[in-house]
Amino acid sequence: MVAPEGRSSGRGGLLQQLLRFTAVGVVGAVVDLSAYLSGLHLGLPTYAARALSFVCGTTTAYVLNRRWAFQVEGSAGRAAGFALLYGTTFLVIIGVNAAALALLPEWWWTVTFAWALSQGLGTMVNFVMLRTVVFRR
């Protein structure tokens, strides 16, 4: 089935969006984790490093998701919805990251695992909300 805009809809459209969202997520995650570890290496407090990394990863994700994964035109409403969603997600990932750092034993992998745990939860929430609210057609 083809949507009026020439894009596929239904199950195939969902799968294609999910695959593109995943690819965008990988790129955004690399940007996010790189900024997080760089911030920590430069001596930023954990919360500041995570905030910086979130902004870098989120900016990357918004541009790529809007243009490629969900293939929609930009608008002030979409940008505002995206900002609201990611602002909420930011609070969640900061909380999960902090909780993981407080609860996990201090090993060489703890910082990266805490980041991955918070990122994974945020990613699941974001896909559902982006698809159903922000970038719906």
TrEMBL record:
Keywords: Membrane, Transmembrane, Transmembrane helix. Signal peptide: none annotated. It comes from the Bacteria. The chain crosses the membrane at residues 21-41, 47-64, 76-101, 107-130. Pfam families: GtrA_DPMS_TM (PF04138). It is found in: Membrane. Residues 20-135 form the GtrA/DPMS transmembrane domain. It is a multi-pass membrane protein. PANTHER family: ARABINOGALACTAN BIOSYNTHESIS RECRUITING PROTEIN RV3789 (PTHR38459:SF6), PROPHAGE BACTOPRENOL-LINKED GLUCOSE TRANSLOCASE HOMOLOG (PTHR38459). Belongs to the GtrA family. This is GtrA family protein. It comes from Blastococcus deserti.
